[in-house]
């Protein structure tokens, strides 16, 4: 078989571990591995793909990013783009394609599979908000970066008696914010699922000061909507999938300015941004990327197109891609309330 592998959307630590797992499984069965470059860009236009031998997958387990490159090119937004993908799949003589990505990448993969293309998926997004699966590649590495940052910010916040606003990634959901905030001992976490008003934030900070806590660490997810806190014009910038470029909204900056103005407490902001996606994957990400990567090849071998491995209750299970992309998995109130015990 000729097995194509593609990584789409935002990169995340652990992608190379997944690529390696798919490739090594395929190569050991005598298949040919074809790397599709830069996500769906590699299957649109002229296409861009290359046969890769075993040496290409050596030494990449611990590497961040993706050796295949990625992009947010969206064939669904391109006139005839999906048909182009089908044509390029045939032109590349791919008997199978493993698409590693989040909801955007997997939506395209799912559509292709519905057109009888031989496509399976692998769950990846540091946002960790795909439905059906408990885990997506890249989440643990992102959380570990947030946790380390909070540890470091604690000592400087305490020394200067400041409010520290820490903006983390999280487009529609607050998994990274709430999990990183819990692990790093945040004094307040603001996420899209349970937004707070500025008055509530200020009241919380005043209460902490009154109780003798003279510094506070606030973790805010970049996708949070708060009245008066984000700039509408910056929110207008969008990527190829039509999503607002949240790094340009400046939620953290804007929230910090409002807090300082309202409370008079010296406030600083740290935007963790793409540091959350870069660098080496944690052991946890490497292991899950390997497990779902090997399982994805299992689906290829069984020709179970339209399916993908997911993580449920600590095991790998198999689900339909269409179910995984049907909706977003949001932070449950129980987890947010648990974090709130420490606010
Ligand atoms: O989709 C994952 C994600 O990391 C989001 O949390 C974030 O908003 C976005 O990617 C940033 O994307 P880009 O790298 O294209 O700026």
TrEMBL record:
Binding locations of substrate: 125-127, 162, 169-171, 222, 268, 274-277
Entry EC no(s): 2.7.1.90
Catalysed conversion reaction: beta-D-fructose 6-phosphate + diphosphate = beta-D-fructose 1,6-bisphosphate + phosphate + H(+)
Superkingdom to which the source organism belongs: Bacteria
Active site: 127 (proton acceptor)
Swiss-Prot/TrEMBL GO biological process terms: canonical glycolysis; fructose 1,6-bisphosphate metabolic process; fructose 6-phosphate metabolic process
Keywords associated with the record: Cytoplasm, Glycolysis, Kinase, Magnesium, Metal-binding, Transferase
One Pfam family linked to the record: PFK
SUPFAM superfamilies assigned to the protein according to its UniProt record, in alphabetical order: Phosphofructokinase
GO CC annotation, single: 6-phosphofructokinase complex
Signal peptide range: none
Residue ranges of every copy of the Phosphofructokinase domain listed in the record: 2-298
Summary of activators and inhibitors of this protein: Non-allosteric.
Known cofactor(s): Mg(2+)
GO molecular function ontology, one term from the record: AMP binding
Annotated positions binding diphosphate: 10
Residues marked Important for catalytic activity (site): 124
Cellular compartments annotated: Cytoplasm
Pathway: Carbohydrate degradation; glycolysis; D-glyceraldehyde 3-phosphate and glycerone phosphate from D-glucose: step 3/4
Binding site for Mg(2+): 103
Residue ranges crossing the lipid bilayer per the database entry: none
Site entry (Important for catalytic activity and substrate specificity), positions: 104
Family listed: Belongs to the phosphofructokinase type A (PFKA) family. Mixed-substrate PFK group III subfamily.
Role description: Catalyzes the phosphorylation of D-fructose 6-phosphate, the first committing step of glycolysis. Uses inorganic phosphate (PPi) as phosphoryl donor instead of ATP like common ATP-dependent phosphofructokinases (ATP-PFKs), which renders the reaction reversible, and can thus function both in glycolysis and gluconeogenesis. Consistently, PPi-PFK can replace the enzymes of both the forward (ATP-PFK) and reverse (fructose-bisphosphatase (FBPase)) reactions.
Subunit structure: Homodimer or homotetramer.
Listed name of the protein: Pyrophosphate--fructose 6-phosphate 1-phosphotransferase
Native species: Candidatus Aeolococcus gillhamiae
Gene designation per UniProt: pfp
